[in-house]
Amino acid sequence: MRRISLAASLMALFVLLLASCTDSTQGENVEIENYILSHNLTVTDTSGVKVAITTPGSVDRPSETSIIEMTYTGKYLDNTVFDKSPAGKTVKLKLSNMIEGLKSGLALLGKGGVGTIIIPSEKGYGGNPPFGIRKNAVLIYEVTVIDF
Question: What are the structural domains, with CATH classification, of the chain?
Answer without folding.
Answer: 41-147 (3.10.50.40)
